[in-house]
Write a structure and sequence with these properties.
single chain; alpha/beta; Rossmann fold; Dihydrodipicolinate Reductase, domain 2; 2 domains; seven-stranded mixed beta sheet; 10 helices; 27% strand
C-alpha cells in the first residue's frame, strides 16, 4: 500500500457503515475510549436499525451512504453483511476515505482483489478486522515463535468454536458461507502471521450437523504450508446459545524445542448468574476490539500500514474458499504459489 499523508487535525473522524454485524457496537465503544477519535455518524441500509443505533450512541444517522461519504470523515468502519463489503469499501475509497472492514473481507477472492486495487489506486488504507492479532496472549505467542524459543514450528492444532449467530449469517446470499467462512479466517490469519508463510494446500470436510439450517455449521481443515508445516482447524457453530463468547480460538503450536498452548479467551472471570440463568465471561484482559480500532486510528493519523491489511484479509479468505472447494471436490486444493507478504 502506498503510504498516505499524516493527519494533523486533533481528532480522527470515523463513520460506521451498518450495524448488521454485532461487533459494530464494540467498535463504537472503542472509539469512545480513544482520545483522538470521534464517531461522527452512522449509515445503514436498514433504516430502522441505523436510526436505533444512532439514537443509542447519540450520533447522526445518514440516510444514504453518499451522504456519509460527502462529510469530512477520515475513515469508515464497515460492519455490514459480508456480501455488501465490496461495494461499500470501494465507494468509500473512491471518496478518499480510509477503510477498516469487518471480516471476511469479501465473499469472493475477485471482490477482495477489487477492493485492494481501488484502495491502492486511491492511496487509502484498507485494514481487515482481525482483532485476535491484538489479543495479549496472541502477541506473546508471536514473540516466543519469532525468538525461536520453541525451535522450528512443525505443526499446529487449532479450534474456533462458537454459537450459531442466526440472522443474515445463515443466509448464503448475504454471508457467502457458514461457520467455515466465519471462523476459518481468524485462525488462517494467525497462522500466516505466526509462520510468515502461505498455505499451499487445503483439504476440508464441511457439513451441517448441529442446527436445522441451510448452510454449513461445522468443518475440519487440514492445511499444508510451503515450509512443510501442517495445521488442522476445527471451525464450527457448535456452542449452545448460552455460550459466553463468540468463539474460543485455541492453538497447540508444536515446535522442535517446545509447545505453545494458546487460549485467546482465557483472560476472564467466570460468573454463574442464577437470576439470568446464564454463565458470563467477565474479561479482565485487554480489549482486543479496542486495540484493533486504536491501531486503525493510528494508521490513519500516521499514514502507515495497519497491523492486518487488505492483503491479510484476502489471503485468509482464500483459505476458507479453498476449504469449500476441497469439500465439494473431495480432494486437496492447491492455493496460489506466492509466498508470504
Amino acid at each position: 500500500m502506498t503510504e498516505t499523508g499524516h493527519v494533523r487535525e486533533d481528532r480522527i473522524r470515523i463513520g460506521i457503515i451498518s450495524f448488521a454485524h454485532m461487533h459494530a457496537a464494540s467498535y463504537v465503544f472503542a472509539l469512545s475510549q480513544i482520545p483522538d477519535a470521534e464517531l461522527v455518524g452512522i449509515y445503514d441500509n436498514d433504516r430502522e436499525r441505523g436510526l436505533a443505533a444512532a439514537a443509542m450512541y447519540h450520533t447522526d444517522y445518514y440516510h444514504s451512504l453518499s451522504d456519509l461519504l460527502d462529510t469530512d470523515v477520515h475513515g469508515v468502519i464497515v460492519c455490514s453483511e459480508n456480501v455488501r463489503h465490496k461495494d461499500e469499501c470501494i465507494r468509500a475509497a473512491q471518496a478518499g476515505k480510509h477503510v477498516l472492514c469487518e471480516k471476511p473481507l469479501a465473499t469472493t477472492s475477485e471482490d477482495a482483489t477489487a477492493m485492494l486495487d481501488v484502495c491502492e489506486n486511491k492511496g487509502v488504507i484498507l485494514a481487515t478486522a482481525f482483532p485476535v492479532r491484538h489479543a495479549p496472549p496472541v502477541a506473546r505467542a508471536k514473540e516466543v515463535i519469532d525468538r525461536g524459543e520453541i525451535g522450528q514450528v512443525l505443526a499446529v492444532n487449532a479450534t474456533n468454536h462458537g454459537r450459531m449467530p442466526g440472522g443474515w449469517f445463515i443466509d448464503r446470499e448475504l454471508s457467502g458461507g457458514g461457520a467455515v467462512l466465519d471462523h476459518t479466517v481468524h485462525v488462517a490469519d494467525l497462522l500466516r502471521w505466526f509462520l510468515r508463510d502461505e498455505v499451499k494446500t487445503v483439504y476440508a470436510e464441511v457439513d451441517t450437523r448441529m442446527h436445522d439450517i441451510d448452510i454449513d455449521d461445522c468443518g475440519m481443515l487440514l492445511m499444508e504450508f510451503h515450509s512443510g508445516v501442517f495445521a488442522t482447524l476445527d471451525p464450527s457453530w457448535s456452542r449452545p446459545k448460552a455460550y459466553p463468547t463468540w468463539g474460543d480460538v485455541t492453538m497447540e503450536i508444536v515446535g522442535t524445542k517446545g509447545v505453545i498452548s494458546l487460549d485467546v479467551f482465557a483472560q476472564v472471570l467466570v460468573e454463574a448468574n442464577d437470576s439470568d440463568q446464564q454463565v458470563l465471561y467477565r474479561n479482565w484482559g485487554d480489549n482486543m476490539d479496542l486495540l484493533l480500532v486504536n491501531d486503525f486510528i493510528h494508521a490513519v493519523r500516521e499514514g502507515k500500514e495497519p497491523k492486518a491489511n487488505g492483503v491479510d484479509g484476502l489471503k485468509a479468505l482464500e483459505v476458507a474458499l479453498a476449504a469449500y472447494e476441497s469439500a465439494t471436490r473431495g480432494r486437496p486444493v492447491e492455493l496460489g504459489s506466492c509466498r508470504f507478504r
